[in-house]
Design brief:
With about 230 residues, the protein is an alpha/beta fold. It has a single domain, classed as Carbonic anhydrase (Beta-carbonic Anhydrase, Chain A, 3-Layer(aba) Sandwich). Helix content is about 40%, strand content about 10%. It has eight helices and four strands. It has a four-stranded parallel β-sheet, sandwiched between helices. Strand 2, helix 3 and strand 3 form a beta-alpha-beta unit. Bound molecules: zinc ion.
Length: about 230
Amino acid sequence: MSKQPGQSSISRRSLLKSGAGVIGAGTLAGWVGSGAITPTPTQPLNDSAIAAEPAGNNASLTPAQALQKLVDGNNRFVARKQQNPNQTQARLVEVAKGQKPFAAILGCADSRVPTEIIFDQGLGDLFVGRVAGNVATTEEIASHEYGTLVLGAKVLIVLGHERCGAVEAAVKGGEFPGLIGSLVQAIRPAVDESEGKPGDRLENAVKANVILQMRRLQVSPVISKLNQRR
Ligand SMILES: [Zn+2]
């Protein structure tokens, strides 16, 4: 890997402004804060900036370009200038024949961070696994091996967010009904790791959890091999 996971955190305001932290077709730690839904002044967008693209368009993209597409989409969302690309009937027909998503995302199941909306993407663009606390379970890792190796996604992001209930539960501890405790257990090492650091305890834990889950993804030989290609 070219960078340590801790170097690839994404700013609270929006997604990272550069390709730093992108690791080949591999893993990027991400973080979206409340700034992602705070309108900020921007230049008017060119209507042709996001033209309809063929469903098999990811082959020509570099990881940095794939990340940039996400950054651009998130900036549009933040600025309330969404273009809602690739959501036409024609796109629907096109992706029915096959998918080539340009990015893969492991995000939280939280209803306030729907990936296609906050990145202003459409059908066939993103390969997404969402689970409370963006935990890299065995099945999530397997899914993202498929998304990157087989479908060819050029960048894989672990996306944490502010006020994550799953991370908050891990911070507070206690008894949990059903299988909720299994999520807390998977996040707990991040809480321990971030303990005592300056700043907000929950925010620190959310960021540490992104790094923790990214490390788990990187244990996959498939994903780590894709990282090394870069
Ligand atoms: Zn969450």
